[in-house]
User: Fold this.
Amino acid sequence: MKGRIFGTFIFFLVLIITWSNAAHADWRKYVSTDKSFSFHYPQGWSVNQKESWIDISNSRSDESVLVIVLPTDEKKSARDLANKTISALKKSNPALRAFNGKEQQDGKREAFTFNLRNVDKEKQYRGYGIVTKNGKSVLWLSFTGPAEGYSQKHAATVLKGIGSSLASGPNSHPPQLGTTRAPSDQRIPDESSALTNKNSSGTPAKGGGLIGTWSSNPDTYGDLVDPSSGTMKGVSYNVEHYKFEPNGTYRMIHCGSGTVISGCATQKGRYEVHGRKLYLHDRKEDWLPDPTRRGQKGAYKNKPTGDEEIDFRFSDQNTLRIQGTSLKRVQ
Assistant:
């Protein structure tokens, strides 16, 4: 661990994770064995320092923070380095999933944040992570905890507390943060919907009431008119179709005709239900553009696309809303 990398990390934690400040009575200081760096961590947690990584964990709550100094590669972005690290971690932990990645940049300083999912001995975990890069300095920091009752605000508070207190030498200062316990109004019930079920082992069900075929009514936006002649060329519309199988696979078709994009996208992959969240992974997509509409991206097949977590809810047994789109059960 080198102290010079910490300034970059503190900058991005303050930039990206902006929770309210408060007291810092529940943080303790850790100083490395060679006194080259120090940081504060939540009271009741333990620190395990290795050569290029640090594990900070709470055995009672089953939560942990992982800090890794990553090998530098000036040609690769923070996103690239995060994905490379995730791929390496998945070799020993195939159930690990990262999704909803977001990039931020300020000059030469980069940051990439992401959500995490994991399964260990049938127990579900969720998490949040960040990779920062400033020239030759690259740092990974991630939080994971049980999915049941997971709070991203709590995760971000722990990460910001540890990251913002990182300092060269032994003189770390306590973070100006609130309690590290997740407030009840921020906890997310993992399986709260009555229409999604757990199986006998207690892990999230593959679909519950979601299994089946769902389709939206075509949304008509108006006529498409040729601006040069004023004649009608067609109707602008949008329609979505989902099919969720009992084995955890799904297929989605989204077709539309508009002034900018016109054609059909077909997506297939695997899905998991976590409370009111639908987690889509191992996804591949086909795109077939409308041949009469010029200037669109060309057709492609089986293009890998990133994992995604989206909101869904049931209005009733036969009406499903996915990210605001209302779908009716077809079968």
The CA atoms of residues 25 and 105 lie 33 Å apart. The chain is about 10% helix and 45% strand. The longest helix spans residues 78-92. Confidence is low (pLDDT under 50) at residues 2-25, 179-206, 219-227, 229-235.
